[in-house]
Amino acid sequence: MNILITGANGFIGKNLRVFLTERGYTDVVCFERNQNHADLARMVQHTDFVFHLAGVNRPLHEDEFQQGNTHLTEVLVKLLVSTGRKIPLVLTSSIQAVRDNPYGKSKAAAENVAFSYMQDTGSPAYVYRLPNVFGKWCKPNYNSAVATFCYNIINSLPITINDAGAALSLVYIDDVCNDFISLLGMEPTGGYRDISPVYQTTVGDVANTLRKFKQSRSTLVTEEVGVGFLRALYSTYLSYFSPADFSYTVPGYTDPRGTFVEMLKTPSSGQFSFFTAHPGVTRGGHYHHTKNEKFLVIKGTAKYRFKHILTEESYDITVSSDEYRIIETVPGWTHDVTNIGSDELIVMLWANEIFDRNQPDTVASSLV
């Protein structure tokens, strides 16, 4: 299938090109800002499907809305009609198409051109009235608050918020591209299409969340970035890193026994860390009332000892790094770990709660 993308060097176009390549669509032709209508005519002659993403939203002169949004769509449609073939057309419009402003009017007019094409030729035309789209490669300090906030906060630049409570409707670039590509395998119908999910938030909430992302490198507390809007926003935030931002250090606490390093903390799912122990060194010697810990030896050989604080029942476990065996602490049992090997012991540790120095739930107790 030969696919034409107008506006291929824009934010959505760049992402769509990558997604198409990943899905095996390699015959993709790109119409870009520096090309003319004659170039477009040559491209259309060999295309089977068109993603019309090109448009104008921040012109120097108001009449550029009409030229870049409505007129270009008219030119494209005439070229499609001239082929005598039924070529599906996808048009990216805007939720502002219902508003009485020059940009909205130009987008609404472009929609009418697309639907007239469908009515006159029977070729399917799909129109997306997109809300704010966010994700990697969106140009900051242009027309996306999310992109601007990400870039400026990462680079310690000021951001301007006129109304923190202003509502934002957002769709994620990956969801947009996936929905676009789904059309390539569908029975052609045409009409308006929506992207799902739409994330409802506010300008202030986005800014505050991005600030927390930045602070997480010092607090080590990460937000719940594994699902939903926070997952997409965090990915977007990271995409504005320069290579100098790709790494950071965390504090380590070293004493004669070895080193303890905290890596990551979560608001509701505990924290991750690791510790080392020199040969013959014992660490621990305490119990918890509620806290749970999971240990994974990733280098060396360790002996874990447990003793019930009331019954004095005892139990020992020896584990080496090649077993990939989790050792779990149990409330009410004193535990310690000894490096019984000849090399440094390295142990990965997860605790189900963030360590609180005021309420550590860690009571020293000897196993002897």
Explain what you see:
By secondary structure, the chain is an alpha/beta fold. The protein folds into 3 domains: 3-130, NAD(P)-binding Rossmann-like Domain (Rossmann fold, 3-Layer(aba) Sandwich), CATH 3.40.50; 133-169 and 200-246, Rossmann fold (3-Layer(aba) Sandwich), CATH 3.40.50; 252-364, Jelly Rolls (Sandwich). The chain has 8 helices and 20 strands. Strands 2-1-3-4-5-8 form a 6-stranded parallel sheet, sandwiched between helices. A hairpin with a 2-residue loop joins strand 10 and strand 11.
Number of helices: 8
Main CATH class of the largest domain: Alpha Beta
Largest sheet: 6 strands, parallel
Mean pLDDT across residues: 95
CATH superfamily of the largest domain: NAD(P)-binding Rossmann-like Domain
Give the % helix: 25-40%
- In the sheet with the most strands, the strands line up as 2-1-3-4-5-8
TL;DR?
The chain has helices at 11-22, 37-44, 63-82, 102-121, 145-154, 173-182, 203-219, 228-238, and strands at 3-6, 28-31, 49-52, 89-94, 125-130, 132-134, 167-172, 191-193, 199-202, 252-255, 258-265, 271-277, 282-287, 293-299, 301-308, 314-320, 326-328, 333-339, 345-351, 363-364. By secondary structure, the chain is of the alpha/beta class.
Question: Keywords for this structure?
Answer:
alpha/beta, Jelly Rolls, 368 residues, 29% strand, Rossmann fold, 6-stranded parallel beta sheet
How do the helices and strands line up, and which of them pair or pack?
Blueprint: E1 3-6, H1 11-22, E2 28-31, H2 37-44, E3 49-52, H3 63-82, E4 89-94, H4 102-121, E5 125-130, E6 132-134, H5 145-154, E7 167-172, H6 173-182, E8 191-193, E9 199-202, H7 203-219, H8 228-238, E10 252-255, E11 258-265, E12 271-277, E13 282-287, E14 293-299, E15 301-308, E16 314-320, E17 326-328, E18 333-339, E19 345-351, E20 363-364
Parallel strand pairs: 1-2, 1-3, 3-4, 4-5, 5-8, 6-7
Antiparallel strand pairs: 7-9, 10-11, 11-12, 12-19, 13-18, 13-20, 14-17, 14-19, 15-16, 15-18
